[in-house]
Amino acid sequence: GQQVMQIPQYQHVQEGEDFTTYCNSSTTLSNIQWYKQRPGGHPVFLIQLVKSGEVKKQKRLTFQFGEAKKNSSLHITATQTTDVGTYFCAGDYWGNQAGTALIFGKGTTLSVSS
Amino acid sequence: EPEVTQTPSHQVTQMGQEVILRCVPISNHLYFYWYRQILGQKVEFLVSFYNNEISEKSEIFDDQFSVERPDGSNFTLKIRSTKLEDSAMYFCANRRVPNTEAFFGQGTRLTVV
Prior knowledge:
heterodimer, A: mainly beta, six-stranded mixed β-sheet, 0% helix, globular, B: mainly beta, seven-stranded mixed β-sheet
């Protein structure tokens, strides 16, 4: 089946440091989505990127979609303790039947110490 | 913000028993998904469902699993003859159309003993 690779699996930073997680697909994606899951919570949508080379910002978060639409990154500037959680990228894949499957990467778990 | 509701929040069942997990989707969001997350691991796609039929399923979604919309509103996941390794958090997700934001329910934590 389709796979979305994501690295690193874990990242620990000191508050104020930057953080980046990378996502890679073996096939071209129609779009890439990013979700955040707080400990004990459920995935919550952050953003969707659609265009080749697209860059979007949400306050301290910067999201990029690669030119080939196969890779993406999420960069957090000056992390805060509220950034703690697991960040997942997810891509839509057309399968063998009529619909799509939104496939998640393994996620990067961010811990922040103050 | 639109909300997907899942019940129960926690289910404990004996190995070999059948369980039904329920999801109330968002109105007019007609694409349904079930995911499984074993503790501390990735969010694994199980199945997508649209227009009263399965549109995609993963290798995990074998004959032990089934989905349906029994009353045209609720969306259910049935797991027959549960095994210890079925213990996980099960999330229902809902989208208005493909390639858009997915809204997740709070999840059902299934514990098989």
